[in-house]
Prior knowledge:
The complex is a heterodimer of chains A (about 475) and B (about 250).
Chain A: E1 24-25, H1 32-41, H2 46-61, E2 84-85, H3 99-107, H4 110-117, E3 120-125, E4 128-134, H5 136-140, E5 144-146, H6 148-152, H7 158-164, H8 175-183, E6 187-192, E7 202-207, E8 214-215, E9 218-223, E10 228-236, E11 244-246, E12 249-254, E13 259-267, E14 272-275, E15 277-282, E16 287-294, E17 299-302, E18 305-308, E19 314-323, E20 328-337, E21 343-352, E22 357-366, E23 374-383, E24 389-398, E25 404-413, H9 416-423, H10 429-445, H11 450-464
Parallel strand pairs in A: 3-7, 6-9, 7-10, 8-11, 9-12, 10-13, 11-14, 12-15, 13-16, 14-17, 15-18, 16-19, 17-20, 18-20, 19-21, 20-22, 21-23, 22-24, 23-25
Antiparallel strand pairs in A: 1-2, 3-4, 5-6
Chain B: E1 4-15, E2 18-29, E3 33-37, H1 44-52, E4 58-66, E5 69-70, H2 76-81, E6 84-87, H3 99-108, H4 117-130, H5 135-138, H6 148-162, E7 166-170, H7 178-195, E8 198-202, E9 216-221, E10 224-229, H8 232-240, H9 243-252
Parallel strand pairs in B: 3-8, 3-9, 6-7, 7-8
Antiparallel strand pairs in B: 1-2, 1-4, 4-5, 9-10
Helix pairs in contact in B: 6-7
Amino acid sequence: MARTQVQDINQSLYDFVMPEVGAERYADGLTPDIVRAISKKKHEPAWMLEMRLQALELYQSMEMAPNWGASIEGLNMDHISTYVAPNAKRTNSWDDVPDEIKETFERLGIPEAERETLAGVGAQYDSEIVYHNMRESVADQGVIYTTIEDALTDPELEPIVHKYFGKLLPMIEHKFSALHYAVWSGSSFVYVPAGVTLPFPLQSYFRLNAQGAGQFEHTLIIVEEGGNLHFIEGCSAPKYNVANLHAGAVEIFVGDGAHMRYSTIENWSKNMFNLNTKRSTVGKDAHMEWVSGSFGSHVSYLYPSTILAGDNSDCEFTGITFAGATQDLDTGCKVTMNGKNTNASINTKSISKDGGINTFRSSVIIGPHAENARASVSCQSLMLDDMSRSDTIPAMDVRCASASVGHEATIGRISDDTVFYLMSRGCSEGEARTMVVNGFANPISKELPMEYAVEMNNLIKLEMEGAIG
Amino acid sequence: MADTLLKVAGLSAGAGDKAILHGIDLAIDAGETHVLMGPNGAGKSTLGHVIMGDPTFEVTDGSILFNGADITEKSPTDRSLAGMFLSYQAPVEVPGLPLYTFLRTICQMRPELKTTARKFRDEVGALADELDLDQGLIMRELNVGFSGGEKKKIEMLQLLLLKPKLAILDETDSGLDVDALSIVSKGIEAYRQRCDGSLLVITHNTRILERLDVDRTHVMVKGHLVAEGSASLIHEIDAHGFEHYEHALESEG
Lengths: 469, 253
């Protein structure tokens, strides 16, 4: 039988470029002057500028490459513009968004999703948020969904940002978190008051249109005691022949008894270096869930981390990563368990094809006081050919005798018997393989909101299309 | 004279360097029921799989004609869409693929079976009742965690949904208890009556054949078809086994 030929991903849904009309683009590379200019443009308080300059100094003193994980060769920071602002003011009406930017988000289905299933939307284009809006009914309950930039100029909100910003993810974490704090721009700030449950998710969508640019958005989410929020993050970019960089940061504070779900569908183009950092801290009796689908980027380092600080808190991480040709995706998660009776459940799947490399990396740390902590890590990999690669690197650091931990990992292929069985019922070879891959991903897509599950199935179908028997 | 539906002529096939089938000649007319018997390891299942186009096996000589067309080089997909069906001895499990979605997909890809969602649901429901299948099973993942009997019933369900011209049943009776065997037999009978289809029943025991109206019986030993006869051949094998066929083949060779 002929070998299956699977074409490259059809990126046409995401791969379109809009002209940079009147965009304000700062020089490539990084100097204190650029950092000052960004801060000045945003009318920031002095403490923020100080923080930026301190981060810049730190960034310049740190080594470029980590000595582990995917190669970031090809990422030359002297050729990355850290700030590209679209020629658009932030607005809460799509009618006021410039046509070419509005068209971009329309093609990505954002305004439609907002009308139908979301409580609020933020849309970032290159370095700035161009659209931000939330349903009135949600605002009436005291929920705040705005940008950090705007919150910093609001005397009521500025102290809250000051209290939380950069406290969970320190700038010294790694070189790119230092870079992030030096040049961050574009952001989401969410505050859910005690006891408030949002009926629909909030969504921020990040689109990087500019060539050779970096995107450094910051997401700060605070859910007070007993609150309940589902936040969705989406991202994409057109493909260029030069490197683009994404080094965002997400900080989530989950109060006692609160419930937080953070979903991501990431489909960056395959010239993107995705060096993103996400962390949440979880209070007692509280619940944190990460649902993560990673399809894009050339290189990813992505390990959302959770600190189970409070007793009886728990977290779930559900993730899927699809690595095709030219992709080296190093993904996973990290959980630090400090509270008693905490529970962590990590469930990931990866699919590799056409020489794509998947590395699953997890770290579970159970502290000395985390009595009766329970952690389970499960990692399943599906290899679609012999050229691809899949590695599993689970680390566990257990310092409490009453803890219970478990880990299982499997690596599989699509068996010829399965393909023949499905073909003997009329499916083409490509359809048969897509059915198996979709089935493999099904436990993850079930966790996504309907329209994102559909998007994920479509992404898998696009990846698998063009198979000939 | 009925039309010839399947004509296998001088077919030899093997896997890797190993020759399994040697010069098989077999013809099945429309509406006929044929039985293929033989001891374990004779190559009966291999013949069923080769007729269906299993890429595990390589055809080294001969041809397969289906409905007058040479399908020797065709993919299993094309053979299925042309009206051929193979029921598996051990149906595969596909985790995450909902059985109902699968059934709907394989029916919708056939223009003659396209129907509305409601009609389809009713049809599947009626067939599940007929086969004594728990409706809950229909919403589960394809064959995952199903018992041997349930898997065979799901094969019968697909057979009755797809209404093929030719059904090859590979050891469908093996490993079934009396009740499951009776239901599977009912399924086969329903297929014959509703679809007027042809059957090639592969088996090495004769119990399932008690309820079948058999037109022709073939005996396979060591990859050779060594005898062909009417339904009465089954009783002879029941009484005397395959041993004398094996001896005859050895002394011939």
